[in-house]
Each structure stands twice: as structure tokens, then as C-alpha cells.
Design brief:
A: alpha+beta; Cytochrome-c3 Hydrogenase, chain B; four-stranded mixed beta sheet; three-stranded antiparallel beta sheet; 17 helices; B: about 170 residues; alpha/beta; Rossmann fold; five-stranded parallel beta sheet
């Protein structure tokens, strides 16, 4: 197993977290609570670090009991824990003592009364809505000539809702704060009480543009708990579909960056390519967004001979189109000039904020689960993309080179797929336990921590989408730019609202 | 520039007649004149996401790409509700979005229509009875038409909008 659990006394919790934070050189990748009052009469709090060198996920855990559950905040020492602590506070009513910022993230005060904590097991839906006159307090910048520009939650384009508060002095943005949570649907609570099969289907609705990655991480977690070995062929198929998902999303991102600076021809070109890929997905699986493919113990379908042919043919055409697209983008000087030096996120800032995935790689942090925890990727040749300047240009370059690498990977996976079963042939025997499922989705590492009881019913499901780490990074990258450049910064990060808000 | 021109000529027109239903094309032609009369040239739609998973948005955007090209029927998406004739709503309506959705609706000039898109916009779908959703748009606004699917594909979206407009 690649998980290590370390139980500490509450007074040692902070010390232990700081130790692993430094030793493993890892941000807090996950921090959550679990209501175990029925069994152990306490809440358990986990703080998770990624130990790349040791190929281990380190869980530091402690217990806290009623009547006044709480723990010593680590947010002042490890910035990346801050948002997680706010989440624990609002979902469980467990107080992170010493955290300077305890505003709610998702349960907005305007519509949610105080004292109701949804992820507690004895939670009842409140009859009343919150106090209407209560208002969210944004961090304020004051001074002569400083004014605020509120944007959202409903935006001009066909995109999900989020509120952004810009403080500007003249043209440049000097402060940006995002208020999210508008698409909160109570996903983690809805997982509780589901059996694993319907859980796998439900996980596809957490974030529509990474439906496959979500169900993949979910199945990975369940398979780890129940000690199921999915056949190698299924693993290759999963990795192949994961790369296909990455490809269509990167195309939509590349096109989005072009259209946000007013370069519409390549954007349309990319959208035609994206449509081709979505249709290919439909041909291969029956679903444009690869839904219904992952099942516990494998995948639900095989790559037949004619499907394989269609896939390879489509890839060949895609390669040609992609070369043209790249040429178009790189040969426009004004386009390149617009992206170069826009929305810079420095490596040090990214490290401190705990930014992960695509955005981190563009800033020079070389972390990629496909390389660090390879699994099936260890059996093929994989080159992780590298960047260093951290601007929109770097993020575009990362996406372009990841797209090329993905085409390469899909071909390698197709070659490796041989005859054999695609799913687990034996009856699944459920065991009581918990496990972490992870996958490098196209935005970055997507984590599912699941706790099952012995009849295979989900007791707790914690999801961390890479967007949860990266929104802060976006807010920093916009500083010093003008507001009209914000859309292109936003698109270059391409973060998920629904995955973040859950 | 030369690159683009070359590509433009090689690719040609990629917009394709919707294979599943040739009648859509007919319907579209018929409607073009109808929209012209009723709405003065174009039917403008404002899209609002009330906490969908983003797959519906992706498909709505796909309906505007050169292959489906919903614009050719005289239907376009606009940035402001003040310019809109219709509201296209996705998602089960979270508590947070309830007020924002209502305000968007109120900002639209009369006559106005509400079309819901995707299974969860109908009754909450997979998110039904969660503590934070309103179980569908119909509990917040009067709904005129619904597009089923999770997510509905672009052809279905275009067809549903056209069929609704004909009514």
C-alpha cells in the first residue's frame, strides 16, 4: 500500500504536520474531517502530504471530541492548509484555533443559517434560510484613487458562476479576491449512503469536463480498499481514455486562450478539432464525455478491432490538424506578444500557495502523478511537460506539448492492449476500510478518499479537485495586469467551478 | 495570415446538415423567416449556469461551433440579459444561485421565455433532495420548455430550441 497513517495526540498535531511539510517538501494536498462519533465518540482529522521521494501518501491524523471540537490551526505556517481548515469549520463545526480567516466558503451566509453542519451524521436540513442582511466581507484595499470592480456571479459567457472582486488603482489590478461556492450542491453528503456502483456513476457528475478522471479516481480508491486487482488490459484502457479526455480539454483551453485575446480563427479551428474528438469518444464508448466506462474492477467495454482502426485513423488526422493549429498560433506576432509576460505566477509563490498540476508545471514545479506515482504509466515511455516562466505563454506551451505527448501515449497504449479480460472476473468482497484514489486529471492531481463499511456502502467521501488548490494561484497571477487581461489569465488556468465547489 | 487563408480554403465549410434529422434543416429555414418576423431578425439567448456540472455548458458551446453553427438559424447567445429574449438555464439551482437566477430573469425585457437544459435542471436529477439544491428551475421560475439529456448533445439542443420557437 502506498498510504501511511500516523496517529498523533492533538498537542503534537501541528508539530507533526510541520515536520512532514518540510521533510517531504509537499504542500497540504488534502485535509479533511470524518464524523466517527457513533463508533469512537470523536471527529477524526486527517492532513495529507505527498511523499514523492518515498512513493507514499502520508496521513497525519488526530481525534477531537465534543462538546467543543477543535484543533490547532496550521494555516499560519502552511498557507495551503488555510482553505481546507475553513472547509472543515463550515462543514463540521470543528474550530481551527488560530486561523485568521474563518469566513464561509460554500455555505453562503445570506442563504444558510448558523449552526448547521451538513457533513455531521446527525445533520438535519434547516427550515429557515440565512439572515438576508448578512454580507460577506471582502478584503479591502483603501487609499486615494483605489476603486473596486465586482464581477459575477453570472458572467457574460457560457461559463459557470463565480464572483470576482478586483481592486484597481488606475489600470493595474492591485488585489483580486474570488468568492466561489455558487455551484455547491452537497456532493460529498450525497455520496454518503450510496453503494459503490451508483457511487461510480455519480462521481461522473461531479465535474462534467473531467467525468472520466473522477470515476477513475473513485474506482481506484474502492479497488484499493477491497484489494481488487483490475486486469492490466483494463488499466491500459483507462489510461488511454484518460489521455483522450486530456486531449479534448486541452484543445478547448487552447482555443479559449486564442478567443480571449480576440484571435478567433484558430479558436474555431480548435473547436472543430474538439468536436472531432468528442465524436471519437462517442464512437468508442457511446458517450461524448466518456461516462459509463469505469466500473469497479475494470472497464465496461473493450477496444474492438474496428474501434482501434477508427481511433488510429482519427489520431493521424488529428496530428495533421494540430500541426496547422500550432503554426497558426506561433506565427502571429501580436498573439504571442499578448501572452508573453501576462499573468505571471512565480515559482516561489506557486510553491507557497500549494498550486499543483498544469499551472504548477508552467511555473517550474515538476510534479506530475503520471511520473511520481506512475502505476501503469511505468510500462510505457512518458515525458512530462516542463515550463518555467509561469505566464500565460508558458501555460499555453505546456498544454500544447501535453497534447502532443497525449497523442503519443494513446498510440503506445493501443499497442500494448492485447487480448484478455477487461474487468475483474470474481465476485467483489467488500471490506470495511478507507483508501485514497488518485489520478492525474488534465488539470492536475484529483484525489478521492473513501471510507466504506463492510456491506460496501460509502460512509465518507472526500474529493479534492486540483482547482481547489489553484484558484488562489489565479488570483495572484492577475496582480499587476489590467482587468481586460483577466479572462485570458483565467482561461490559461482553466479551473473548474463545479469541482471546486462540490 | 497566409497560413490561415490556406487552411480556410482546404477545410472549406465544415458546418454540416444535422444528420439525425434532416427536418431540422427544413425547420430551420422555416424558422428563420418566423424569427425574422417575431423577434426582429434574431432570437437572443442568455445562458445561466445554476450549479450544473459543466457538461451542459460544454455542449451548449459545442452548438455554437462551426460544425453545428446554431447562428445560421438566427439564434445567438448574448452577454447581457437586457438583450435577451430567452433564458437557457442549466443545473439544479443551488441555494446560492437562487437570487442571482431571479435577478437575471427580472433584468430581461418582456416577452421572455425560460428553457431548461439537462436532467438536473428539470427536477434536480442526480442531485435531487440534496440539502443545498432547489430541485429544479421550475421551483424558482416559470419554465416554458425543457431539453432532456445528461448532457443533451448539441443537435438535440438546437432541435429543441427550434421546435420551441415554432410553437
Amino acid at each position: 500500500m502506498d498510504e501511511a497513517y500516523i496517529y498523533v495526540k492533538p498537542e503534537n498535531f501541528k508539530k507533526a504536520c510541520l515536520y512532514f511539510h518540510e521533510k517531504l517538501n509537499s504542500p497540504v494536498v488534502m485535509m479533511f474531517a470524518c464524523d466517527e462519533r457513533r463508533k469512537n465518540k470523536c471527529f477524526r482529522i486527517y492532513c495529507v502530504f505527498m511523499g514523492i521521494k518515498y512513493k507514499k501518501w502520508v496521513f497525519v491524523a488526530m481525534d477531537t471530541a465534543e462538546p467543543a471540537p477543535g484543533f490547532e490551526s496550521i494555516a499560519k505556517d502552511i498557507y495551503s492548509a488555510g482553505l481546507f481548515e475553513r472547509e472543515i469549520k463550515e462543514m463540521f463545526g470543528i474550530l481551527p484555533e488560530g486561523n485568521p480567516d474563518l469566513r464561509s466558503l460554500r455555505l453562503h451566509d445570506e442563504v444558510w443559517p448558523e449552526g448547521y453542519y451538513p457533513l455531521r451524521k446527525d445533520f438535519n436540513v434547516p427550515e429557515s434560510s440565512g439572515a438576508e442582511n448578512k454580507e460577506y466581507v471582502f478584503n479591502k484595499v483603501e487609499g486615494e484613487g483605489v476603486f473596486e470592480v465586482p464581477v459575477g456571479p453570472v458572467h457574460a459567457g457560457i461559463i459557470p458562476p463565480g464572483h470576482f472582486r478586483f481592486s484597481v488603482a488606475g489600470e493595474p489590478v492591485i488585489h483580486l479576491e474570488a468568492r466561489l461556492g455558487w455551484t455547491h450542491r452537497g456532493v460529498e453528503k450525497l455520496f454518503e449512503g450510496k453503494d459503490v456502483d451508483s457511487g461510480a456513476r455519480f462521481s461522473e457528475c461531479v465535474a462534467g469536463d473531467s467525468a472520466f478522471a473522477n470515476s477513475n479516481a473513485f474506482c481506484h480508491a474502492v479497488e484499493k480498499i477491497c484489494r481488487i486487482d483490475a486486469p492490466e488490459k483494463a488499466m491500459f484502457l483507462r489510461a488511454m481514455f484518460l489521455e483522450l479526455e486530456r486531449m479534448y480539454n486541452h484543445l478547448s483551453g487552447i482555443g479559449g486562450i486564442a478567443i480571449d485575446v480576440g484571435f478567433s480563427f484558430p479558436a474555431m479551428y480548435a473547436s472543430v478539432m474538439k468536436e472531432t474528438l468528442l465524436r471519437l469518444n462517442e464512437k468508442l464508448t457511446g458517450s461524448r464525455y466518456l461516462k459509463g466506462v469505469n466500473i469497479i474492477g475494470g472497464v465496461s467495454l473493450d477496444l474492438t478491432v474496428w474501434k482501434k482502426k477508427a481511433l488510429l485513423k482519427a489520431l493521424e488526422a488529428m496530428e495533421k490538424d494540430f500541426k496547422e493549429l500550432k503554426k497558426m498560433l506561433y506565427s502571429s506576432v501580436s498573439f504571442m506578444d499578448r501572452l508573453d509576460g501576462t499573468g505571471v505566477l512565480k515559482k516561489k509563490t506557486a510553491e507557497d500557495l500549494g498550486v499543483l498540476g498544469l499551472a504548477a508545471r508552467a511555473s517550474g514545479i515538476e510534479k506530475d502523478l503520471r511520473k511520481d506515482f506512475p502505476g501503469i504509466y511505468g510500462k510505457i515511455k512518458f515525458n512530462a511537460a516542463k515550463g518555467h516562466s509561469g505566464d500565460v505563454m508558458a501555460r499555453l506551451n505546456i498544454r500544447l506539448s501535453e497534447f502532443e505527448e497525449s497523442m503519443n501515449l494513446v498510440k503506445q497504449f493501443v499497442d500494448k492492449i492485447a487480448a484478455g479480460n477487461v474487468d475483474f472476473q470474481n465476485k467483489i468482497e467488500f471490506t470495511c476500510g478507507a483508501g485514497l484514489g488518485y489520478v492525474e486529471a488534465w488539470r492536475g492531481p484529483l484525489l478521492y478518499w473513501i471510507k466504506l463499511n463492510k456491506s460496501g456502502v460509502i460512509e465518507r467521501c472526500k474529493i479534492v479537485d486540483p482547482s481547489f488548490h489553484n484558484w488562489e494561484g489565479l488570483c495572484y497571477s492577475a496582480l499587476g495586469n489590467i482587468i481586460p487581461d483577466f479572462p485570458v489569465c483565467n482561461k490559461s488556468f482553466d479551473l473548474s467551478y463545479s469541482g471546486n465547489d462540490l | 495570415m497566409i497560413n490561415m487563408l490556406k487552411n480556410r480554403i482546404i477545410k472549406g465549410v465544415v458546418a454540416e446538415p444535422l444528420k439525425e434529422d434532416l427536418e431540422i434543416e427544413k425547420l430551420g429555414a422555416e424558422l428563420k423567416s418566423l424569427i425574422h418576423k417575431k423577434f426582429g431578425r434574431s432570437f437572443y439567448i442568455r445562458e445561466v449556469d445554476t450549479s450544473s456540472c459543466n457538461a451542459c455548458e460544454s455542449e451548449i458551446i459545442a452548438a455554437t461551433n462551426p460544425i453545428y453553427d446554431i447562428h445560421r438559424f438566427g439564434v445567438s447567445f448574448v452577454a447581457s440579459p437586457r438583450h435577451a429574449d430567452g433564458l437557457l438555464v442549466t443545473g439544479p439551482v443551488s441555494r446560492n444561485m437562487r437570487v442571482a437566477l431571479k435577478k437575471t430573469y427580472e433584468a430581461m425585457p418582456d416577452p421572455k421565455f425560460v428553457i431548461t437544459c439537462g436532467d438536473c435542471a428539470l427536477d434536480g436529477g442526480v442531485f435531487k433532495d440534496s440539502y443545498y439544491v432547489e430541485n429544479g428551475v421550475k421551483n424558482v421560475l416559470p419554465v416554458n420548455a425543457h431539453i432532456p439529456g445528461c448532457p443533451p448533445n448539441p443537435a438535440a439542443i438546437i432541435k429543441a430550441i427550434l421546435v420551441f420557437l415554432k410553437k
